[in-house]
Design a protein that fits this description.
With 66 residues, the protein is an alpha/beta fold. The protein has 3 helices and 3 strands; from the N terminus they run αβαβαβ. The chain has a 3-stranded parallel β-sheet, with no helix packed on it.
Length: 66
């Protein structure tokens, strides 16, 4: 994520990432401490559980469904 930011990307777009949500949470926490400033987009197919959505509350900046 930090490398993407350094390359000039406008956001980090996670596509169908439900199976790695615990890893995402850990990585975002670490990256934020190291200066991650670009938005986090969670691109879901609409199949995520309410539990997953609640875990990501306050972490994801933009929700997308395709």
């Amino acid at each position: 994520m930090l490398n993407l930011q350094e390359l000039g990307c406008h956001n980090v777009n996670l596509v169908s990432p439900t199976h790695v949500v615990p890893n995402i949470l850990a990585a975002v926490k670490l990256a934020a401490r190291q200066g991650l400033r670009i938005p986090l987009v969670y691109n879901t197919g609409g199949y995520d559980s309410l539990e997953t959505i609640k875990l990501l509350e306050g972490v994801v900046d933009i929700w997308a469904e395709e």
